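Appendix B. Worked example

We walk through a single record from start to finish. Start with the input: the chain for TniQ, Paraburkholderia humisilvae, length 216.
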Amino acid sequence: MQPAASSLLPRSAALPRPLSFPILTLDERKLTPALGYVFSRKWLEPCESLVSILWKFERANGAPGHTVARLARPDIDPYEGIVPELGEVDINRLRENLLAPVGTLQMALLQPSQRRRYSNVFRHCRRCMAHGYHSVLHQMESIRTCPAHHRALETECRRCGYEAPYRISVQLLEAPYRCASCRASYGGQGWMPDKPLMKAEYRKAFTRRYFERHLG
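Next comes the structure step. The output line below is what the pipeline stores for this chain.
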């Protein structure tokens, strides 16, 4: 979706046109973009976690972490954050800002039950991180390997050993695809708007495993 307006920096006509994104002008009282923003539901992959979705929003728009955190719920302390769990997140607020279907947003949230338990630290597949993707399935304690790549899921940073709390917070949001402590990469450069979609076989693998674990 194209923004209604943006505040791009002026540049000389003699210089080549660089790749750039709109810089958001934010109404801090409403905590929503006042001049529009860039976001497309086409960027979303099956079973993508809310953290992963918000990383894409943040990277495409250059939005600060405290503002992006409050898209999940306006009354939170963005530095303390909240667990991205059904019932804790304001889905209607997310839908209005991201223009994503309610079903997609519900699927992006943890849904604990007696049969489903989730890790309270960020778990990831390095190959998924290189693609710029994190799945809500990666947080399920019963799943030890990535459903698509069959690699063991990791929690610790390979450089410093830090385990990031799995919360919608400034700490996690402002370190997309990287360790929130030392900023080492979790695998590759992560997502950019021109990155191709995930392979169809991987999309099917995540979708199949999601419905097996949530409906089976």
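Two observations about the output. Residues 1-31 have pLDDT under 50 and may be disordered. The chain has one domain: 26-183.
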